[in-house]
Amino acid sequence: MHLGLGAFARAHTAVFTEDAMLAAGDYEWGIIGVTQRSDTVARQLAPQDGLFTVAERGDGAAPARVVSSIVEAISGRDTPELVVERIAAAATKVVTLTITEKGYRFDPRTHTLDLDDPEIQADLAGQPPRTAIGQITRGLQQRALNGAGPVTVLSCDNLPGNGELTGTLVRGFAASLPTSESGSLLAWLQDNVTFPSTMVDRMVPASTEGDLAAVEQELGLRDEAAVVAEPFKQWVIEDNFAAGRPRWEDAGAFFSADVPAWEAAKLRLLNASHSMLAYLGLAAGKETISDAVADPAFRTACRRMMLEEALPTIALPAGLDGGQYCAEVLRRFANPALGHTTAKVGSDGSQKIGLRLIPTIRGTFDAGREPRWAALAIAAWMRHVAITPAADLNDPLAAGLHAVLPATRMPEDVVPALLGFRPAFDQDLAQHEGFTGLLLHWYRILENNGPEGLGNEINHG
Ligand SMILES: NC(=O)c1ccc[n+]([C@@H]2O[C@H](COP(=O)([O-])OP(=O)(O)OC[C@H]3O[C@@H](n4cnc5c(N)ncnc54)[C@H](O)[C@@H]3O)[C@@H](O)[C@H]2O)c1
Ligand SMILES: O=P(O)(O)OC[C@@H](O)[C@@H](O)[C@H](O)[C@H](O)CO
């Protein structure tokens, strides 16, 4: 099963699964895909028997291919009971998920389930579950009752320790059920469910009408569920499966005991610079990541953030050459055929900056240096929040962010106000004078000097 049947799952998980089946000649597997918030993808796939196109874009792109590993697509919003039933079925061996960072509904300070979330509370109270964690836990509860045996839950979202986190949240949900249910469920989870961690990588933008029209030209068929992706793809997985899995290694996945290090490197190099380019690009009116990275000053800022601040504060996994990785990341961002928008990458900033940039800021301060470039990324995010009307800010915490913003929007008011926004910043960082100073410096330049002045400052920085 896959929860969160967005663009990424189709261009990554479904492709690896089909390739694994083709390589091993083992056609026992198939994916039941579940959409979460809207039923669009389920509706698009249903009349196509689950078939959809993956069209690679950029140097080395393979011809468009039709992928057949999705055997059923259902709407988790409209048929949550069916999701529970499918998770509980003995035939289900692995539940993968890409539900975005906000879909986990965890408290970023404690990395535990947000029990104040009204949807979590409603799921706990027994409504047909609407949250992914509710659906998974209710599905596992039913599975235990059915005697359907062990299963693996495999988070594929851009989160550090995504497996451990998912396990904590599922157990947190189970522990919050009435005692008559929770004790036996927690014991069953302990014996029957594993939560390996993974690092996934492939840039997959949201498909546009132009993408669908181009695929129609290539294929001679209209495919409403087509996705475009860069040629590169990578999957590093912790080999801790409870009940069998496709031979993803035959499709190029890499099994490693060092997934946390791979995930940290990817989040703090690739994803951090992706976010940085998104907010700098948005400030300069650049529509896509490739437009943003084509700006020499923005590219310099990204490269210096990675090389001078992130790399020295990360323990790289064995076999990863940090310098080469950073160069490759910038090359991949420059792919002009991908059309990955700054708006999409910059969405949900409150959920991402803490994971992608704050560890580098802390590590650099701890090493006695100034995190100048990572602070630029945060200042650009702050300004994006401050100048975007709350209704247009694509962030689950948009209302809360705007509630703390001062009326004036002056840098010296906005920076401390957003630093005081607890879900994003801890108190020690919020009160760090050096950090506040760096943020104010960059915010004022962004506000007063325009893109050209910003470029000059970066080039002389
Ligand atoms: N697109 C990429 O380049 C890429 C690359 C690596 C990893 N990922 C991971 O995959 C995730 C999804 O990316 P995508 O491109 O498929 O996005 P998408 O917008 O196409 O799909 C997001 C999916 O998550 C679900 N979702 C959104 N909000 C949710 C919520 N509050 N609760 C439960 N489900 C929710 C949606 O219904 C949808 O199924 C990313 O957030 C990231 O963690 C994406
Ligand atoms: O998908 P998100 O929203 O977590 O982040 C946006 C991008 O940074 C991300 O999707 C990258 O494209 C991806 O992580 C590359 O593998």
From TrEMBL:
<dbReference type="GO" id="GO:0008926">
    <property type="term" value="F:mannitol-1-phosphate 5-dehydrogenase activity"/>
</dbReference>
<dbReference type="InterPro" id="IPR013131">
    <property type="entry name" value="Mannitol_DH_N"/>
</dbReference>
<dbReference type="InterPro" id="IPR050988">
    <property type="entry name" value="Mannitol_DH/Oxidoreductase"/>
</dbReference>
<dbReference type="Pfam" id="PF01232">
    <property type="entry name" value="Mannitol_dh"/>
</dbReference>
<keyword id="KW-0560">Oxidoreductase</keyword>
<dbReference type="InterPro" id="IPR000669">
    <property type="entry name" value="Mannitol_DH"/>
</dbReference>
<dbReference type="InterPro" id="IPR013328">
    <property type="entry name" value="6PGD_dom2"/>
</dbReference>
<dbReference type="Pfam" id="PF08125">
    <property type="entry name" value="Mannitol_dh_C"/>
</dbReference>
<feature type="domain" description="Mannitol dehydrogenase N-terminal">
    <location>
        <begin position="1"/>
        <end position="249"/>
    </location>
</feature>
<dbReference type="InterPro" id="IPR036291">
    <property type="entry name" value="NAD(P)-bd_dom_sf"/>
</dbReference>
<protein>
    <submittedName>
        <fullName>Mannitol dehydrogenase</fullName>
    </submittedName>
</protein>
<dbReference type="InterPro" id="IPR013118">
    <property type="entry name" value="Mannitol_DH_C"/>
</dbReference>
<feature type="domain" description="Mannitol dehydrogenase C-terminal">
    <location>
        <begin position="258"/>
        <end position="436"/>
    </location>
</feature>
<dbReference type="InterPro" id="IPR008927">
    <property type="entry name" value="6-PGluconate_DH-like_C_sf"/>
</dbReference>
